[in-house]
Specification:
five-stranded parallel beta sheet, Rossmann fold, single chain, alpha/beta, about 140 residues
């Protein structure tokens, strides 16, 4: 049963189509519970192998991408009359999403079962799996 006091929803985004499925579900819930959404992007300190050696510094490259998809997320929320916040942190997604949600007293985490990964998972993605196991607050996984 869903808690009727859901006022703060955390949505981890990585820019993938799947992560935006999580945002769509969070918008639906936010409209029904009059909640605010915070989109969280955790940027790894280490670039994936294909980006190593590029002319554009990794951090600048990734921040441009993050700003682009966060802008799309904000527009989607505003178009649906849902309050939107964004947060970009450096860290390790499998560790930091649940910790961020707990530290900032979110009521619910809504995320996709798989996002953008260098290794395609066959079942539940490694990040969503880690969040489910580490989170002290409810997690809704969207397929």
């Amino acid at each position: 049963m869903i808690n009727k006091n859901i006022k703060r929803i955390l949505v981890p985004l990585d820019g993938s189509k799947n992560s935006f499925k999580g945002l769509d579900e969070a918008i639906y819930l936010a409209q029904h519970f009059n909640s605010a959404i915070t989109a969280l992007c955790v940027i790894s300190s280490y670039p994936p192998l294909p980006l190593m050696g590029r002319q554009i510094p990794y951090e600048k490259h990734i921040l441009e991408q993050v700003k682009r998809f966060m802008s799309n997320a904000k527009k989607t929320c505003v178009d649906n009359k849902v309050k939107f916040n964004e947060k970009i942190i450096k860290g390790i997604a499998t560790l930091d999403i649940a910790e961020f949600a707990s530290d900032n007293k979110f009521d619910l985490i809504v995320m996709s079962s798989r996002g953008m990964s260098t290794v395609k998972e066959l079942f539940l993605g490694s990040v969503s799996n880690a969040v489910v196991h580490k989170s002290k607050i409810p997690v809704l996984i969207v397929k």
